[in-house]
Write a structure and sequence with these properties.
It comes from Pseudonocardia aurantiaca. Keywords: Membrane, Transmembrane, Transmembrane helix. It holds the Pfam family DUF4395. InterPro entries: DUF4395, UCP030042. This is DUF4395 domain-containing protein. This protein is mainly alpha-helical. The protein has one domain. It is built from six helices and no strands. Helix 2 packs antiparallel against helix 4. It is flat. The protein starts with 16 loop residues before the first helix and ends with a helix.
């Protein structure tokens, strides 16, 4: 997972925002099915999807591959592209919630599984329906806080 103060790994080109929303839509459906079925295996599979996007790169994420194979060529080039690092960060956040949820379901702590899955579902739905990437916003906030902190440290070092 990229951290806000770390550049995206080489080979991560900017991403098509329509693909990001497609991924969020499929994720929303999968996570809703998890909540309806209580299937820890389906949630574990979604965790693997998140892991591929976060750790291997977005171009390896299964829903991204599906988007490129089925839709991207029909839609043409996007009007703009987004930086990949915030999207990868959000995949890492989704991975964390999916793993916690799967552990909850597998260990019999069903309430933990439901709550963690519901948080991941809410974030995916916000992106799918409104184009609001909660993980991307977290990434930007963390980056601003780190920049502010390093500026304060530099100022304190200059006055010392």
């Amino acid at each position: 997972m990229s951290s806000p103060d770390q550049p995206t790994r080489r080979g991560d080109p900017p991403v098509d925002p329509r693909g990001v929303r497609f991924n969020a839509t499929v994720t929303t459906v999968v996570l809703a099915l998890v909540l309806l079925s209580g299937s820890p295996w389906l949630l574990a599979a979604q965790a693997m999807v998140f892991a591929l996007g976060a750790f291997a790169g977005l171009r390896f994420a299964p829903y991204s591959v599906l988007y490129r194979a089925m839709l991207a060529h029909r839609l043409g080039e996007p009007a703009e592209r987004e930086e990949a690092a915030p999207v990868r960060f959000s995949q890492g956040v989704g991975f964390t919630f999916a793993v916690v949820g799967a552990v909850g379901y597998f260990s019999g702590l069903t309430a933990l599984g439901i709550v963690a899955t519901a948080f991941a579902l809410a974030a995916a739905f916000l992106n799918a329906a409104f184009g609001f990437c909660l993980g991307c916003e977290m990434y930007a906030l963390i980056a601003r806080l780190r920049n502010r902190s390093s500026q304060n440290n530099n100022q304190q070092g200059a006055t010392a």
